[in-house]
Structures are given as C-alpha cells and as structure tokens.
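Subgroup meeting minutes
Present: P.N., E.W., G.H.
Scribe: E.W.

1. P.N. recapped why we're keeping a running log of single-chain structure predictions: easier to compare across weeks, and new members can see raw inputs and outputs side by side.
2. G.H. added today's entry (268 aa).
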Amino acid sequence: MDNDVKSASRTIEVLDLLASHADGLTLLEIAGALGCPKSSAHALLATLARKHVVAAAPTARGSVFKLGHHIFEIGQAYASNVDLIRDSRDIVRRLVDTCLETMHVAALDGGQVVYLAKEEGRQPMRMVSALGRRFPAYGTGVGKVLLAGLDDSAVGDLFPTAEQMPRLTPNTIDDPARLIAELAETRRRGYAVETEESSVGLGCIAVPVYDSSALVAAMSMSVPTARFPQERRDELLVQLQAGARELSTRLGASSYPSQISPGTTRCL
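Output recorded in log:
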C-alpha cells in the first residue's frame, strides 16, 4: 500500500512539473527536479506515455516529455461534470457579448486564486491570467472577494508578513494590515475593486458567487484604466452582479447577499 501511495504521489509531482514547463523536460531534468533515480523516472514516464498522459517529442535538446492529450480529455470530463465551471462559461460569454470586456471566474486555493473560466473581451489587451493558472489572491479583484469571505485570522495565517506579499506592480497591496482594511471595505460594499494591482494599465471589479451553502467563487470584469471611469464602473457593476446572481441561483443559492460575510468562503 505504501508503494502504491508513493507512486501516486510521484505521478502527481510529474504532472505538476510538466504543467509548469510548456516546452517540455528531458528525462534527466525530470529526474533531477524530482530527486529520484533516472531509472525510476523512466519507468514512471513510460507508463504514463502508454496511457497518453504524457507524450515524448524530439527537440534540439533531445527527447522531451510534455503533457499528453489524455490530460485534456480528463480535464474536459471534469469540467463537464462541474456545474460551476460549465455554467460560468455560459454566463461570462453572454456578459462579454454585452459588455465587450474580459471576464473571469476563479476559486480560492490557499493564498492563491485558480482561474476556472475566462472569456476574452472584444477589444485586445494583455493579461496575465489563463485558465487553470494560479495567481496571488491579494493582488486580484477575484482574490479580494474570496479573501473577504474568510475570517481575518485565516487571512492573517495566509499572509502573516509583507514577505508573503511580493508586489506584482507598484500598486499592489503588500502589507497585511492594509489588506485586512481593504477586505473590510470589500465585505461592506459586497464587491472588490482593483486598480493596476495585478497588471499595469488594467482595472477590475469582482463580485462573489454562491452555492447553497458557501461563497464558492468570484466573478470579475477587467477593463483598461483609460476607459474605466467611475460611471463606467457603476454601469458594468450592475451587469456583473446580475450575472453572478444568476450563476449563484443555478448553483442552488436561495438569495444573493448585499454584503460579504467572513467565514463563508469555501476553498478548493
């Protein structure tokens, strides 16, 4: 049993490693990163390759391993069975058609947000987000909403000192006390505002998404700051809240609170 569990853990480590290296890694690079013998890494990769979970490809560096197509199939199967992801896609696409701005839906995993849905706006702009990508929660609108649904003590455990909050831009909140104060304001008004804290030149508004028992995600709209005056923000907020309310109803929420209560966020 111990060997089985160890093999399963090592498999996850390989997949996580390859997921963070889009160009692929050689056998020696994988063995070195995992701290295991080359023979052990080869045996594991050979098994995963037979199942099409990883795939080998020739490059100038030699043969490298990348994630295989079966990972995509597994991910699609997961997404098709999760109402949050499936229904998020439907709603964010409709909102983008109406508002023309980029939309995200994200959930909280520890001190990071994980993007579950994204729909590009109809006007080009450069963003750091991508489906499945993780990003520090303190530096994003969706992250502020999700952190607002935690108790202050839980937020303090995630970000006890400024060292845990490196700046993403010159405007990023990098002080735990400032973050706690910002989350108090986010709870009071029921939504988060972010101005050039994750990406220079971009602003964001974000609102909570609920299921029948918890705050499970946040939905946001990102807009270049050059065309994001207060009146535009107010206009988009109304539509964003309507979309989040609809998604919450689909997920089983019986009401949509006007404020965010601490202790309500459910992490992944």
